[in-house]
């Protein structure tokens, strides 16, 4: 394609990165990454997702975080960020999940619950409750899954007092 004086677009780069992932061709993927940056295509959701997916699939988590930062600085999407928070949390890399979360300028309820859920999954109830409280202070309106996660966090820390406070809040918003 490039030999015919055609410039690849976002869709082309997305599929080329997918091919690199399948073939585990990291060198070619890194060349594509450089071309994507030069072509100012990092802010495209399709390209950003494909690039992150390729690095994650090849277990290059350091490179994944680097790309995420690049995508974020070029106007990346909160869905992309939340997926990365979730991925790090599922891998048990809560410090990385928190680092990515902290890069979000305005985290939404999905980003918050991904982070809280990760802390709960790894038996870090105190940290999950801290996040739940920070979510409240941030003005995020809790949904039913957020309340369920916070109750699980109370169970981890054996926090009856916290559980009673959450129960009162639940009654206020009447999720039953």
Q: SSE layout and pairings?
A:
Elements: H1 10-23, H2 26-38, H3 45-57, H4 61-73, H5 78-90, H6 94-103, H7 109-121, H8 125-137, H9 144-157, H10 160-173
Helix pairs in contact: 1-2, 1-3, 2-3, 3-4, 5-6, 5-7, 6-7, 7-8, 7-9, 8-9, 9-10
GO molecular function, one term: RNA binding
Keywords: Repeat
Protein name: Pentatricopeptide repeat-containing protein
Features:
176 residues, mainly alpha, 2 domains, elongated, PPR_rpt, PPR_At4g14850-like_plant, repeat, RNA binding, TPR-like_helical_dom_sf
- What's the overall average pLDDT, rounded? 83
Helix content: over 70%
How would you name the oligomeric state of the polypeptide chains in this document? single chain
Distance between the termini: 58 Å
Number of domains: 2
Uncertain segments are none
How many helices? The count is: 10
Topology, number of strands = 0
* Percent of sequence in beta strands: under 5%
Task: Summarize the biggest pleated sheet.
Answer: none
Give the overall shape, derived from the CA principal axes.
elongated
Instruction: Give Rg in angstroms.
Output: 20 Å
Helix/strand class:
mainly alpha
**Order of SSEs, N→C?**
HHHHHHHHHH
